[in-house]
TrEMBL record:
PANTHER family hit by this protein: GLUCOSE-METHANOL-CHOLINE GMC OXIDOREDUCTASE, GLUCOSE-METHANOL-CHOLINE OXIDOREDUCTASE N-TERMINAL DOMAIN-CONTAINING PROTEIN
Gene3D superfamilies with a match to the protein in the record: FAD/NAD(P)-binding domain, Glucose Oxidase, domain 3
UniProt name for this protein: Alcohol oxidase
Residue span(s) of domain Glucose-methanol-choline oxidoreductase N-terminal: 82-105, 279-293
Residue stretches in coiled coil: none
Keyword Oxidoreductase: yes
Keyword NADP: no
Molecular function as annotated in GO: flavin adenine dinucleotide binding; oxidoreductase activity, acting on CH-OH group of donors
Active site: H542 (proton donor), H585 (proton acceptor)
Keywords: FAD, Flavoprotein, Glycoprotein, Oxidoreductase, Signal
Protein family (similarity comment): Belongs to the GMC oxidoreductase family.
Cofactors demanded by this protein: FAD
Length: 606
């Protein structure tokens, strides 16, 4: 069998970043094993506006199903995750914002490690990106940026970050409406102070208006490196362990995988390290299939335990979103593409002619709300008091019987509530969708133009889990995000709908308002909104925490060097290590993790 210095499991956002950086050194060999294929050449992937069309959401998506969600009317929700070289950045919405600096600082605080704080991590955020400043047209359409927080290094920067070349009128009206309601205009949504409203940066190549995925950023330009071997269409079934341990710790000796084409099982050897980067649902699955996890869960699934690390797969959290939408008097919306096929054909032609038009961009304006935007002071005071009084109760409930993790979740909640009190925890993202977005299909809703305000629950306190149910590597795990298990999450999401409604009728957005569609006039009280939401909220695909970076005494799975407790040479590096949900879309943070992981593995040379 072939042996490599490093084997990376999962060629997704973090995985391909790490492999690419490690192989900058010609003397280092890396194999990446990826379940999906290289989808870079698909129009559904590289044309921004084609997102969600064609095969992008079937073949390229794990479409993990949750178990029935007790607090959401027993519904089974779908958590999307990319299955391709480049992982979720192949199918994501390309919003490239960052969370608030206080949350990155809290991450370090939880780990007693000031190298995981905003100021220490900013160089890694910057290293990952190659930023194109907005042009005159973009500035005229409301784009702001702060050069000091972006990466401009032509030889080092990888992820092309830019702004859309197309804007919808209603987005500008909405930003003004948000400002009317007290939101500040953001100087830059990636500056660590996102409590504001602004145009989101995108992971887009501004030179030709194509998606810049992790594959296009970190793989395609380096595909001919002899020391970088990428094996696609290969699902990792387990990590192989050496017969003897070192210093009482497990030593990985190789990785086993199944080729999709032939169902054949193969192995590669590893001389230095295994890096698990299979995503928040994929990574705990690989560890559990390899015998690392909660021994009881493993035995029930038919896997022989090798290392009892009972918090693998626990501490899982995800953002959920909901909507308020109205009919609008404006006709240039995304709905127009569905309502008028001739218009859609024209717009498609524009993309192919000169890369302009509605398919050339996914423009999004975001407004990140603070508690004071969502709650009255007395509401907030009583919600925090209740959460504090019930802190141990919920931390214990969410910990699945693990006392260390109960302490860890309690510590996370204490930090979140302290930030809530300072109006620094940012519980919701509001974003303007220039068209219909919501739970009703095209066929079932009035054939009209819409304005939608999405409301994403950004700082949920609920924690769930994801675990294997079978030793068969091709069997999906049981994913239980335990959505809405904490009352503060419910209150915040209800508050988000009320804020969205206020925005829809605030000037100047009210100039295009033509009546609310959803939730609808019959949902007026908090209770009615809550009941409606239980039937409709959906995953925002921002799952984190299942292999969390926390001290072992707090139920963590990896240490601050990303090493799995109890192993010599296995690290996890992807969204699963983020200890608690952060108030942002995640890809920029995951690239930062990839950059930091590569740096750690190389001995901190950066
Ligand atoms: C539909 C959608 C929209 C999103 N929108 C945005 C957005 O607009 N902005 C933003 O910042 N973030 C967004 N996100 C979130 C963001 O893209 C992800 O959080 C991030 O990319 C996750 O990176 P990762 O490295 O943890 O996992 P991934 O990038 O998902 O990579 C994991 C990789 O591991 C592979 N894998 C899994 N199991 C195995 C196995 N057993 N063997 C081999 N390979 C395996 C997978 O196929 C995948 O390639 C979105 C996500 C989705 C799904």
């Amino acid at each position: 069998i072939s042996t490599y210095d490093y084997v990376v499991i999962g060629g997704g956002t973090a995985g391909i970043t790490i492999a690419s950086r490690l192989t900058e050194n010609k003397d280092v060999t890396v194999a990446v094993i990826e379940a999906g294929f290289n989808a870079e050449g698909l129009p559904e992937v590289f044309i921004p506006g084609f997102i969600g069309m064609g095969i992008a959401f079937t073949t390229l998506d794990w479409s993990y199903a949750t178990i029935p969600q007790a607090n959401l009317n027993g519904r089974t929700l779908t958590v999307n995750a990319g299955k391709a070289l480049g992982g979720s950045t192949i199918i994501n919405s390309m919003i490239f914002s960052r969370a608030e600096k206080e949350q990155y600082d809290a991450w370090g605080q939880l780990n007693n490690d000031n190298t995981w704080t905003w100021s220490a991590l900013l160089p890694f955020f910057k290293k990952s990106e190659l930023f194109t400043p907005p042009n005159v047209f973009q500035v005229a359409n409301g784009v702001n940026y702060l050069p000091s927080v972006h990466g401009f290094n032509q030889s080092e920067g990888r992820v092309k970050v830019g702004f859309p070349n197309f804007f919808f009128e209603q987005s500008a009206l909405w930003r003004k409406a948000a400002e009317f309601l007290g939101f500040a205009a953001s100087p830059d949504l990636a500056d660590g102070n996102p409590h504001a409203v602004g145009v989101a940066p995108n992971s887009i190549d501004a030179a030709n208006n194509t998606r810049c995925s992790a594959a296009c950023a970190y793989y395609t330009p380096f595909a001919d490196r002899e020391n970088l071997v990428v094996i696609t269409n290969a699902t990792v079934s387990r990590i192989l362990w050496a017969n003897s341990s070192a210093q009482g710790k497990l030593v990985a000796s190789g990785v086993e995988f199944i080729l999709t084409s032939s169902n054949e099982t193969q192995t590669v050897g590893v001389s230095k390290e295994v890096v698990v980067s299979a995503g928040t649902i994929g990574s705990p699955k690989v560890l559990e299939l390899s015998g690392v996890g909660n021994s009881t869960i493993l035995k029930t699934a038919g896997v022989t335990p090798v290392l009892d690390l009972p918090t693998v797969g626990e501490n899982f959290a995800d953002h959920v979103h909901s909507w308020a939408n109205s009919f609008t008097n404006i006709t240039l919306t995304k709905d127009a593409l569905l309502l008028n096929t001739a218009f859609a054909a024209e717009q498609k032609a524009l993309w192919f002619q000169n890369r302009t038009g509605l398919y050339s961009a996914l423009p999004r304006s975001l407004g990140i709300a603070a508690p004071s935007d969502v709650f009255t002071p007395s509401q907030l005071g009583s919600l925090i008091a209740q959460a504090e009084a019930n802190l141990t109760h919920f931390a214990t409930e969410f910990s699945n019987g693990n006392p260390a993790l109960a302490r860890g979740i309690a510590a996370q909640h204490s930090i979140a509530l302290a930030l809530y009190k300072e109006n620094k925890e940012l519980p919701l993202e509001m974003n303007l969708e220039p068209g219909y977005s919501g739970p009703t299909s095209f066929a079932a809703r009035p054939a009209r133009n819409y304005t939608t305000i999405n409301s994403v629950l950004y700082a949920p306190l609920s924690r769930g889990r994801t675990h294997i149910v079978s030793s068969n590597p091709l069997t999906p795990p049981a994913v239980d995000p335990a959505y809405w298990a904490h009352p503060l999450d419910v209150a915040a999401q209800v508050g988000g709908i009320k804020l969205a409604r206020r925005m829809l009728v605030a000037p100047p957005l009210n100039s295009i308002y033509n009546g609310e569609f959803e939730p609808g006039a019959d949902k007026s009280t908090d209770g009615e909104i809550e009941d409606w939401l239980r039937g409709v909220v959906a995953s925002d695909n921002h799952e984190v925490g299942s292999c969390s970076m926390m001290p072992q005494a707090l139920g963590g799975v990896v240490d601050t060097q990303l090493r799995v407790y109890g192993t010599m040479n296995v690290r996890v590096a992807d969204a699963s290590i983020i200890p608690f949900p952060v108030s942002s879309h995640l890809s920029s943070t995951v690239y930062m993790i990839g950059e930091r992981a590569a740096d750690i593995i190389q001995g901190g040379k950066a």
